[in-house]
Design goal:
Layout lengths: L3 H13 L21 E5 L2 E4 L4 E4 L14 H11 L10 H13 L5 E5 L2 H16 L3 E5 L16 H5 L10 H4 L2 E4 L4 H10 L4 E6 L15 H12 L2 E5 L11 H6 L5 E5 L9 E5 L1 H4 L18 H14 L4 H22 L5 E5 L2 E5 L8 H4 L4 H13 L2 E2 L8 E2 L6 H18 L1
Parallel strand pairs: 3-13, 5-6, 5-7, 7-8, 8-9
Antiparallel strand pairs: 1-2, 2-3, 4-10, 9-10, 11-12, 12-14
The structure holds (4S)-4,5-diaminopentanoic acid.
(4S)-4,5-diaminopentanoic acid binds next to loops.
Amino acid sequence: MNHERSSLLFQQARISIPGGVNSPVRAFKSVGADPLFIKKAAGSHIYDEDGNDFVDYVGSWGPMIAGHCHPDVVTAVKQTVENGASFGAPTEREITLANMVIEAVPSIEMVRMVSSGTEATMSAIRLARGYTGRDKILKFSGCYHGHSDALLVKAGSGAATFGVPDSPGVPADFAKHTLTGEYNSLESVRELAKQNKGQIACIIIEPVAGNMGTVPPREGFLEGLRQICTNEGIILIFDEVMSGFRVAYGGAQELYGVTPDMTTLGKIIGGGLPVGAFGGKREIMEKLSPSGGVYQAGTLSGNPLAMSAGIATLNILRQPAFYQNLEDRSRLVAEGIANAARSAGYPIYSTRVGSMFCAFFCKEAVYDWPTASRCDTAAFARYFLGMLNEGIYLAPSQFETAFVSSAHSEADIEKTIAAAVKCFRLIA
Ligand code: HOZ
């Protein structure tokens, strides 16, 4: 496969952009290759600058649940932009999307739109601190909630991929308020809650972890967190930037039947345009400026283009059987890859929640960061490059999630499984 033009563009990009990319994990660094420069996408496929065609399981890292360039989304954005891209003033679409979110996620009584998932989690934490009058927060090793200072502690995603879970530049004085528990270990949370009684403002968690690979919550884990938070007066924040509208229309909280106090959203609710949101109980949300004193603002918050793309996307998701069809496709592809590994005699640990899945290059079960971090990342890199060569575009890191969209066809899935059979035979 020819990557000549991508390589040339990467050389140029490195001169003017740090590392040649505007977000680290897309650099392909951990798989020992140069990133592909993408020219266009349609449905389940993306096309690079050299004209190569790939079945895409990155889906812009989650937003493209209905596939790239869905005609309803394209039409909505085109119609909106003709009347102005941004006003820095309220628009009716913001109310429409807010009401759609509130209707889909009953724990959200009020919602504030922002421009990224990072802003959503950062602001939710500030609000939880303002509401409780407490400083400490608790997160989990391997979970990633964007790149604000308080949350770049034992972080997943690119931070885990590049071995910088605690970033330089985060003052120790800021990070000292962040406690870290182990995912799926209620014991670790109980211990921290005991040691820091009356001091923890919130527990923030990806209810389906998607930034250390895909790690589902064990039975009873989310329920146990809910109980601890209720008993200790701690705000429970579900970071559903990835899982929201992805694992079910109402997100992981609908799937597992556990109700957080606050929720952060992003990705799908912007239909591929920059967006984030945080919401929750009215009593908490009303502490936010200008109704309350906790400050948060943004020039492009509630941007008309993002609102239109989000509304159009959510309307697609509301069509009958959307999630059942997505579930069926996702099962086929994830099981197909796991079977390909098994028949090649190369054991992997396969995880999946709805249309999020991961092939861990690990013989043992993965249920937290210590178990995820034992994976054979060199073998993953060989698999990644093999799949890429066969026309399958996966996330360039063991510690990310693969996303299936409603646009993935039977032919795409067959092609993916055939590629996996070939790759695992070569690796084994
Ligand atoms: N936070 C994304 C991965 N979980 C990375 C997005 C990007 O690099 O584009």
